[in-house]
Amino acid sequence: MPIEVRPASVFDDVRTVIGPKSPTASVCWCLSYRIPSKLNNELRGPARGEYVAELCRADPPPGVLAYDGDDPIGWAAVAPRSATSFARNRKIPHVDDLPVWSLWCIRVRPGHRKQGITHALIAGAVEFARDRGAPVIEAYPLDNGDARVDLTMAYAGLRRNFERAGFVHAADTTSVLAGHPRILMRLDLR
To answer: Which GO terms describe its molecular function (predicted)?
Structure first.
């Protein structure tokens, strides 16, 4: 069955892909770059999911989901950079003053990896941003060469996957994740 990528407006589907197994867990929910650090630290347990549920009802929703039929199997966080902590991040430079969008997290559920879902999510996130008027979309993937990356830390994406989607290296950063440098890659949507 072909993979379909849709806006992440159905909270139960978002929870399936990025929610914790225990509703009382205080895990990421892909909020760490989306909201101010103070709020991120204050939101605990179920409050994190409730916050994400509100984001799913907002316009635009917080990202895109990949589906195999009705089964949500992947997630990509994408939003205007100005609405994320990347707007103030000192480790990830601003290339210019364009109102860019950021794509910063990709997750594929176990059992669905190595099937091209990441590529579908990147393409879907690009279309999501383009449809909402983004002139440029940025990503901050790991520049890992051929080195293996722990799956937990691969959420930022890998350089080669963004190159395959047409993104180009725009700047180095001082950010390091899992021992690998992160780079700033961009795709012009104009």
So the answer is: acyltransferase activity, transferring groups other than amino-acyl groups
